[in-house]
Amino acid sequence: MTKIYRFLKLAGRLTDSFIKLAGRLTDYVMSIRFTREPESRVVPPGDRVFFNCRTNTGQDEEIYWLHNGHQLDPSKRSDVRISNGQLSIKIRTAKRHRERQTGSYQCVGGFENMLLMSNPAQLTVAYLDRFPNTVESNEVEGNEGNNILLTCTPPASDPPPIIQWFKETKLLNLTDKYELISNKNLFIRNISQSDAGTYACQASNHLTGESVLSPSVHNLTVQSADELHKPRLLYEPESSYHPQLGSDLVIPCSASGSPKPTIFWTHHAFNAPPTFLNGSDGLLQLVGVSMNSSGEYTCQIFNGRGRRILRKTLITVFEKPVASISSFRNDPHREGDPLELYCNTQGFPAPKISWMFNGKKRMTAHKLEIPSLKVTDAGIYQCFAENEVGISSTAVLVRVVPNMMNTTQITTDAPRSRKGILYPPSAPNVTQLSEDSASLSWSMPNITQDIQFFKVQYRDLGTKDDPLKSSWYTVDGNIDPPIRSFEVVGLIQNHVYRFRIAVVIDNDNTVGPVSKRFHLKESTEKGPAVIPQLLHILPLSTSSLSVQWTVPKVINADEQGSVEGYFIYFRDSLSAGPYSKITIFGPGTHSHVIENLKQGRRFDIKVRAFNVHGVGPFSPVQYARTLAPETKTKKEVVTAAVEAREPEDEDATLYLIIGCCLGVLVIILISVCSAVTIIKRRKMAKKYSETNAAIHNKYQDTSLQISGLQYQTEQDEYPQVCTRPTGHVIDSQFQMTYDSGDLETSFSVNDQSYGGDNSISSQGSTALAQDSSRNLTMRMNTLMNHPDYLGSVEDEVKKFSRKLL
């Protein structure tokens, strides 16, 4: 036992030494960074472009290049060269070759299994297209003393073209009178008769050296100021603008009339009353736009002549994404431990997230999760966030300490369930929110067991001067499975607490490890007074909503209180119950995706800021609805029907067996009934055959022959061709039937049965019998058309019987 104890102690020392060594290596590895990164380029055809990449690892660094996500192989491309980490590309002159060269280029640098990927650099080839097809002449009228805006629609170009204006054939110099708006439109102040004439714009590309003149010209006519005229709209703002955060924006709104129209702007921000803006000469100028600049803007034009013009536009400020990585577990990690990395992003529109591991794409999700770490999982993890404005990335090193030996842990109190060992949640991280509340956050390993709910427990350890320990308290209320944070209220100042999280899984429960000692400090400082503003709530799927908010800038941040995070409150609008809460750490995070929501339901959402001293006021409540489920196609319905026929449990299997037995029984009964019916039909057919034979033999008797004269008389009385009541024609083939079903007799007569002079053939008695039968058939068909059909049939049968006898 002593030797085993010494061996375990030695193994523990080796593990500690390895962890310290890994920490030193991490300090070196985390200093890996790019000293030179590739930058986006626009080059003319036939030129050569260079991309540079270098890290601070020295001469032993490993560098390779990616084009549109695929590794470049210089041996397979004659236009590509790589030397000392520098990539050079010879741009083709043919357009079909250039399209294969453009795109995204990234370099991956580092050493061994510690590789870092750069942000992508875009390569485009310079070009200039022709102006779009528009009307050749545009008539513009304006009164003296007014301001006029002439528009120019530039052609597609990379880089953006340089716009110049010409009057007649003379180039206009930009002065206070002539100003270029949005780098394309010409704004003329205080027009006079000398400004009348023809104007046209020209686009030039400085890389290709090309210039194209617009085929569309503006004919400006200047009217006298004495001619009174209602305001006429010359240019209205576009329906929407998307400036980048911190950039400048100029939006024109031009009109002419006499007297000169008054033009001013109003701004209606989200959840705020409208404000008036001073638009000089009808130009709305926004310098260094912020998130508060978003909203609806209205241009109002009037000149007292009884006409008022209103035009609205929507401004949405776009923000370049910023990414950061967080985790609830400290580095280094042991082999077999779970790993959860969260990519926290800020930016608008909501950035798309992608994860890289040692320079290779891993996944696209907010959370990167590894259930059980291996030694090969150690390396650099990068999170890339990209939207319409740009892309940014951040990296973190994950160290994995291998197990020195396999040991079996024997625990007597570990709860078990039917599916195996229950894995408890992690020890909670505790953050003070106010003088009497704290926020807890925790994580769960990636398990397949069904989590029913969480419970929060805490223990009061008293003060430092009076350390009285209480029993464990359980907070009322269940916490839903997807939630990993909770606020505990009703705590006492200056007291020390410990917290732990319990989880109920498959009707069994287990308790996680205890948190560190937490001291609820007393402070005179205040919580944040800033009010967050919800910008957008976008439905991403049937069960998730993306929430975007902003915080207005404050003049004195010390008086307003610092911000250390945000609370997102949400609830189902139909339930009107208590709000669920999500905790967001970090003042720079202004977006979050709420998941595990009900599909097609409306939700109330609000946000508030917090710090260690308290919480701030709520933002105005906004409402959003998750996406409704899509209508199933015919194929999906068939699939669902097939799946519905599959037994899902034991009861369904029993019902299926009973149904099969009943089906077999029905098939047997149908078979028996069919056999009985066939036998009866055969007996009836035999009976009918015997009856037909007797009648036929009776007609063969020579005593029943009828003279030719009688036959001639009967034929004259009843024509050869007659019609049944059913509408069928009876000709030289005759048929007699009794509808009672007791007797059926058929006869056939050929052309030799009688001659052209209606004489009796040599066949004798057989022909006479057939003629008599034919006469009876024609007589009965005639009588069937008579109203007293049934009585006539009976009389005819009696007459025919007496003749035969």
Rg from C-alpha positions? 48 Å
CATH class category of the largest domain: Mainly Beta
Helix content: 10-25%
Q: In the CATH hierarchy, what is the superfamily of the largest domain?
A: Immunoglobulins
Number of helices: 8
Any idea of the CATH topology of the largest domain?
Immunoglobulin-like
Number of domains: 7
- The coarse silhouette is extended
CATH architecture of the largest domain, by name, is Sandwich
The span between the termini is 132 Å
Biggest β-sheet, characterized?
Answer: 6 strands, mixed
SSE class: alpha+beta
Rounded mean pLDDT is 77
Number of E-state strands: 62
Low-confidence segments, ≥5 residues, pLDDT <50? 1-5, 17-30, 405-418, 633-649, 701-770
Percent strand equals 35-45%
Brief summary:
This protein is of the alpha+beta class and 805 residues long. It has eight helices and 62 strands. The model is unreliable at 1-5, 17-30, 405-418, 633-649 and 701-770 (pLDDT under 50).
Please describe what this structure looks like.
The chain has 805 residues and is of the alpha+beta class. The chain folds into seven domains: 34-125, Immunoglobulins (Immunoglobulin-like, Sandwich); 127-224, Sandwich (Immunoglobulin-like), CATH 2.60.40; 228-317, Immunoglobulins (Immunoglobulin-like); 319-401, Sandwich (Immunoglobulin-like), CATH 2.60.40.10; 416-625, Immunoglobulin-like; 640-692; 700-804, no CATH class. Helix content is 18%, strand content 38%. The protein contains eight helices and 62 strands. The strands form 19 sheets. Strands 2, 5, 6, 9, 10 and 11 form a six-stranded mixed sheet that branches. A hairpin with a 4-residue loop joins strand 38 and strand 39. Helix 6 runs parallel beside helix 7 (765-784) and helix 7 (765-784) runs antiparallel to helix 8. The longest helix is centred in the C-terminal third of the chain and has 50 residues, at 650-699. The N and C termini lie far apart (132 Å). Mean pLDDT is 77; it is low at 1-5, 17-30, 405-418, 633-649 and 701-770.
